[in-house]
Write a structure and sequence with these properties.
The chain has about 375 residues and is an alpha/beta fold. The chain has one domain: 3-Layer(aba) Sandwich (Peroxisomal Thiolase, Chain A, domain 1). It is about 35% helix and about 20% strand. Strands 1-7-6-4-5 form a five-stranded mixed β-sheet, sandwiched between helices. A four-stranded mixed β-sheet has the order 8-13-12-11. Strands 2-3 form a two-stranded antiparallel sheet. Helix 3 crosses helix 4 and helix 7 runs parallel beside helix 8. The structure holds coenzyme A. Coenzyme A (COA) binds next to helix 2 and helix 7. The site of coenzyme A has 19 residues, from helix 2 and helix 7.
């Protein structure tokens, strides 16, 4: 059975930064309150030209460069987002087209903020089955467009960004070692976007009532998160007979500093084993685990052979944890250039649209 290694990683955050002081001009709050209750100081907000797909593409291209893999070698793209480009088509397909992953299947996975860990696990399982070799997992969020900037309960929390990992098959042991995934739909209304789906399609009234924005019972979500995080980590470790003593780094979902602190206490682990960057990005939902991981790699905190645990929770309710033995790019004699594929992809997409148009014209004549 092949092992599934994380061999590439990339992140992208839009440039504009929104500080707590900026938010205090929109709603009745203060920098002090937000920092004390959440640990957040600032977050990045997408500009008008940033979309989940374009941000996901930036992260994906960077991840492919690290993995030394060209897009045409990808077998599968899983995109996970709580703020997808459309209900359908899948944001994964838009990314597939923009990077020119001509061989890849592509689909979206919806598990709110837990999505990235779920998607990594699905990608790893597909590799372990032996049916495919190269998977791209992307978490990408423009939550600012689903945020009610008049609701101080939610608008202080979220930020925009994207992160991507490349998973690859190898005979060498390591990579994804274990994972647990959980859900509890009885808590669906604790964190949701009530309108815009089939249950409550868009109408003037739903827009007037702000039902297309994120709604949250903050206290309920807080209680749930502190209940499940530590437990999920322990479960994932127990699956492979490891304990927290074997772990070098925990990368938790970056929702709230106090939630991470409570998980550390539950696990009886020092907080300095936790990667924390919620102060500078806020909660970027599905992008938070990869962004935090990548920053830890850049600071030379996470190193090859380290045992790293990813743990996340979110709407659904959903939660998951995964243990990984960190590896990095697979050894290779070739050195690939990823960037040209992107420009080729743009041309290819344009030509395919024209051909589809011409084909449509002639087939109409035939009918
Ligand atoms: C949202 C959250 C920060 C609120 O913190 P809290 O400590 O639970 O705060 P409360 O809701 O109890 O509110 C306490 C008081 O502060 C006020 N308050 C709420 N938001 C405020 C804000 N942004 N600024 C200032 N005051 C605020 C409340 O009105 C309340 O006032 P009151 O006591 O006069 O009624 C916290 O519940 C949380 O982080 N929950 C988890 C959310 C999360 O992680 N969601 C994403 C999951 S993926």
């Amino acid at each position: 059975m092949p092992f599934a290694h994380i061999t590439g990683w990339g992140m992208y955050v839009p440039e504009p930064v929104l500080t707590n002081d900026d938010i205090s001009k929109l709603v009745e709050t203060s920098d002090e309150w937000i920092r004390e209750r959440t640990g957040i100081r600032e977050r990045h907000i997408a500009s008008e030209t940033d979309f989940p797909s374009t941000m996901g593409v930036e992260a994906a291209i960077r991840a492919l460069k690290v993995a030394n893999l060209v897009p045409t070698e990808l077998d599968l793209i899983i995109c996970t987002s709580s703020s997808p480009e459309y209900i359908f088509p899948a944001t994964a397909c838009l990314i597939q087209d923009q990077i020119g992953a001509t061989k890849a299947g592509a689909f979206d996975l919806q598990a709110a903020c837990t999505g990235f860990v779920y998607a990594l696990n699905m990608g790893a399982q597909a590799i372990r089955s032996g049916s495919i070799k190269n998977v791209l997992v992307v978490g990408t969020e423009v939550l600012s467009r689903f945020t009610n900037w008049k609701d101080r309960n939610t608008c202080i929390l979220f930020g925009d960004g994207a992160g991507a990992f490349v998973l690859q098959a190898s005979d060498q042991p390591g990579g994804v070692m274990s994972a647990v995934m959980h859900s509890d739909g009885s808590g669906a209304d604790a964190l949701n976007v009530p309108a815009g789906g089939a249950h409550c399609p868009a109408t003037e009234a739903t827009i007037r009532e702000g039902k297309h924005f994120i709604h949250m019972d903050g206290k309920e979500v807080f209680r749930f998160a502190t209940r499940v995080m530590g437990k999920a980590v322990t479960e994932a470790l127990e699956q492979i007979q490891l304990t927290t003593n074997d772990v070098q780094w925990i990368v938790p979902h970056q929702a709230n500093y106090r939630i991470i602190d409570s998980a550390a206490k539950h696990l009886k682990m020092p907080l300095d084993k936790f990667v924390i960057n919620v102060d500078r990005y806020g909660n970027t939902s599905t992008a938070s685990v990869p962004i935090a991981t990548i920053e830890a790699i850049q600071k030379s905190q996470i190193k090859p052979k380290d045992k790293v645990v990813f743990v996340a929770f979110g709407g659904g309710l959903t939660w998951a944890a995964m243990v990984v033995e960190w590896t990095g790019p697979l050894p290779s004699k070739k050195h690939v250039r990823v960037e040209p594929y992107r420009w080729f992809a743009r041309l290819r997409s344009y030509i395919r649209r024209i051909l589809r148009h011409i084909e449509g014209f002639f087939s109409r004549k035939e009918l």
